[in-house]
C-alpha cells in the first residue's frame, strides 16, 4: 500500500476543498508514492511523536493539526517545528494533516464532541459559504438521459436526503461550425438547429473535476456548451461547529460537571451562570470565539469551545453561558475518529494510536 492510497481514503472522509483558506492541510512531508509500513494517528506531530512512530515502525503520521502552519524560511532546527520536520525528513516519515477539512465535515470533530455528550438533532453551527456549485449544460434530446446518468454516477444531483436531482428544459439550440470543426450533427459551415435538453444540476464543490470529466466523456458534441456557477445556498452538511440538544434539560452545574468528566480539563473557565436549565448546546472544537454570535442566534443555552480571551466572556451578555474547556481537551477524541475510520478502510493494516501526550497546557 502506498501513501497516496491512504491520503485518497482520508480525502474521501474529509475533502481538502473544505479546509479553511488560512489552513495548511494535506501531505506535508514525504512522497505519495512511498510504500507504507505502518500508520500512526495523533492530534499533534512533535519530535516525540516522530520518535514513537519510528519505534513502532510507522512511516506515515496522520495528524489532526499541521506541524507546518505558516511558511518555513529555513530548516536548521532552531525551534520545535523545524526540529520535528527535520527528524521526519531524515527518517523518511511522511506527515499528513487533515485539520479544518475534518472540522468542517458533518461527521467530523464537532460531531464527535456531540457524540460524547449524547446530543441529538444535530446541525451545523456555522455553514461554510459557496460549497455548492451548479452546472447548466445543453445536450441533444436523444442523449440527455445518458449524460444525466453519467453526472449522477459521480455524485452530482445530491441534495440533502435526495439523489439524482436535476431540472430539465427542452428547447432548440443552434450552431454553425467553421472549417476546422468536426460536428457530430449537422454540416460545417451551415447553421444547424437541434432539439436539445438543458440540464441543470448541483453538486458539492469538491466533485467539480469528476463532474466535468463525466460531462465531457458522456456528451456527444465536439464542443460542449456548459455554464458553471457557485451558489450562495447553505450546505446543511458542510461547516464548522455543531448545535445539538440534550435528551432532557439539566441544571448548568450538572451539565458542566458532566463535561468535566467526559473531557477531563484541569478546569472549565466560564461566563456567569444564568440559573436556567440547559437543553440546547453549541460546540466548536478548538478556538471558537468567532462563533459566539452564531451560538446566540441559534438559541444555544451554552457554548462549549476553547481559547476564549478575557473580553470574549463579556459577549455572553446574559444570553447564554460560554464555557472554555481547553483546546486539546475539546479535540482529543478526533484521533479516535480517524483511527476507527482508517481501520475500517484498511482492516488488515497496522494503524496505531499515538500514546504521546501532546497537550502543551498543564494545570497546577
Helices, strands, pairings?
Layout: H1 3-13, E1 26-29, E2 39-42, H2 47-55, E3 60-63, H3 80-90, E4 94-97, H4 99-103, H5 109-117, E5 120-127, E6 132-140, H6 144-153, E7 167-175, E8 192-204, H7 208-218, E9 226-231, E10 239-250, H8 252-263, E11 269-270, E12 278-287, H9 292-297, E13 302-306, E14 321-324, H10 327-331, H11 334-345, E15 351-353
Parallel strand pairs: 2-3, 2-15, 3-4, 12-13, 13-14
Antiparallel strand pairs: 1-4, 5-10, 6-8, 6-9, 7-8, 10-12, 11-14
What does the radius of gyration come to? Answer: 25 Å
**How many strands, which pairing sense, and closed or not: the largest β-sheet?**
6 strands, mixed
Number of helices: 11
The domain count comes to: 3
Q: What is the straight-line distance between the termini?
A: 45 Å
Secondary-structure-derived class: alpha/beta
CATH architecture identity of the largest domain: 3-Layer(aba) Sandwich
The top-level CATH class of the largest domain is Alpha Beta
Low-confidence stretches: none
Annotation, overall tally of beta strands: 15
- The CATH homologous superfamily name of the largest domain equals NIF3 (NGG1p interacting factor 3)-like
Shape: globular
Widest β-sheet, arrangement of strands: 5-10-12-13-14-11
Helix content bin: 25-40%
Order of helices and strands: HEEHEHEHHEEHEEHEEHEEHEEHHE
Walkthrough of the structure:
This protein has helices at about 5-15, 45-55, 80-90, 100-105, 110-115, 145-155, 210-220, 250-265, 290-295, 325-330, 335-345; strands at about 25-30, 40, 60-65, 95, 120-125, 130-140, 165-175, 190-205, 225-230, 240-250, 270, 280-285, 300-305, 320-325, 350-355. The chain is an alpha/beta fold. The protein has three domains: about 5-100 and about 335-355, NIF3 (NGG1p interacting factor 3)-like (Udp-n-acetylmuramoylalanyl-d-glutamate--2,6- Diaminopimelate Ligase, Chain: A, domain 1); about 110-130 and about 240-325, Udp-n-acetylmuramoylalanyl-d-glutamate--2,6- Diaminopimelate Ligase, Chain: A, domain 1 (3-Layer(aba) Sandwich); about 130-230, Alpha-Beta Plaits, CATH 3.30.70. The strands form three sheets. A six-stranded mixed β-sheet has the order 5-10-12-13-14-11. It has a five-stranded mixed β-sheet with strand order 1-4-3-2-15, with helices on both faces. Strand 3, helix 3 (about 80-90) and strand 4 (about 95) form a beta-alpha-beta unit. Helix 1 packs across helix 11 and helix 6 runs antiparallel to helix 7 (about 210-220). The two termini are about 45 Å apart. The model has no long low-confidence stretch (mean pLDDT about 95).
Amino acid at each position: 500500500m502506498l501513501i497516496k492510497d491512504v491520503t485518497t481514503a482520508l480525502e474521501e472522509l474529509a475533502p481538502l476543498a473544505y479546509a479553511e483558506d488560512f489552513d495548511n492541510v494535506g501531505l506535508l512531508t514525504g512522497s505519495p508514492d512511498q510504500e507504507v509500513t505502518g500508520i500512526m494517528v495523533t492530534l499533534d506531530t512533535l519530535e516525540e511523536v516522530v520518535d514513537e512512530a519510528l519505534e513502532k515502525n510507522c512511516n506515515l503520521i496522520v495528524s489532526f493539526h499541521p506541524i507546518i502552519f505558516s511558511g518555513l524560511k529555513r530548516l536548521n532546527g532552531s525551534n520545535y517545528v523545524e526540529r520535528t520536520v527535520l527528524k521526519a525528513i531524515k527518517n523518511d516519515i511522511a506527515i499528513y494533516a487533515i485539520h479544518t477539512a475534518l472540522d468542517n465535515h458533518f461527521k467530523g470533530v464537532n460531531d464527535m464532541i456531540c457524540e460524547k455528550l449524547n446530543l441529538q438533532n444535530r446541525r451545523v453551527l456555522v455553514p461554510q459559504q459557496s460549497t455548492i456549485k451548479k452546472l447548466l449544460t445543453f445536450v441533444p434530446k436523444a442523449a440527455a438521459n445518458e449524460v444525466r446518468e453519467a453526472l449522477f454516477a459521480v455524485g452530482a444531483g445530491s441534495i440533502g436526503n435526495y439523489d439524482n436531482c436535476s431540472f430539465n428544459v427542452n428547447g432548440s439550440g443552434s450552431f454553425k461550425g467553421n472549417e476546422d470543426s468536426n460536428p457530430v450533427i449537422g454540416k460545417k459551415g451551415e447553421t444547424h438547429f437541434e432539439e436539445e435538453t438543458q440540464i441543470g444540476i448541483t453538486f458539492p464543490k469538491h466533485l467539480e473535476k469528476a463532474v466535468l470529466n463525466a460531462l465531457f466523456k458522456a456528451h456527444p458534441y465536439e464542443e460542449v456548451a456548459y455554464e458553471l456557477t457557485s451558489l450562495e445556498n447553505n450546505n446543511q452538511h458542510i461547516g464548522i461547529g455543531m448545535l445539538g440538544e440534550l435528551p432532557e434539560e439539566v441544571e448548568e452545574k450538572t451539565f458542566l460537571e458532566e463535561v468535566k468528566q467526559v473531557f477531563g480539563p484541569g478546569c472549565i473557565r466560564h461566563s456567569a451562570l444564568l440559573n436556567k436549565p440547559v437543553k440546547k448546546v453549541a460546540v466548536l472544537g478548538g478556538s471558537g470565539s468567532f462563533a459566539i454570535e452564531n451560538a446566540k442566534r441559534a438559541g444555544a443555552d451554552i457554548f462549549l469551545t476553547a481559547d476564549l480571551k478575557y473580553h470574549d466572556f463579556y459577549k455572553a451578555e446574559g444570553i447564554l453561558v460560554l464555557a472554555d474547556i481547553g483546546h486539546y481537551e475539546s479535540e482529543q477524541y478526533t484521533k479516535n475518529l480517524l483511527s476507527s475510520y482508517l481501520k475500517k478502510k484498511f482492516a488488515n493494516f497496522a494503524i496505531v494510536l499515538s500514546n504521546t501526550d501532546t497537550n502543551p497546557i498543564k494545570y497546577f
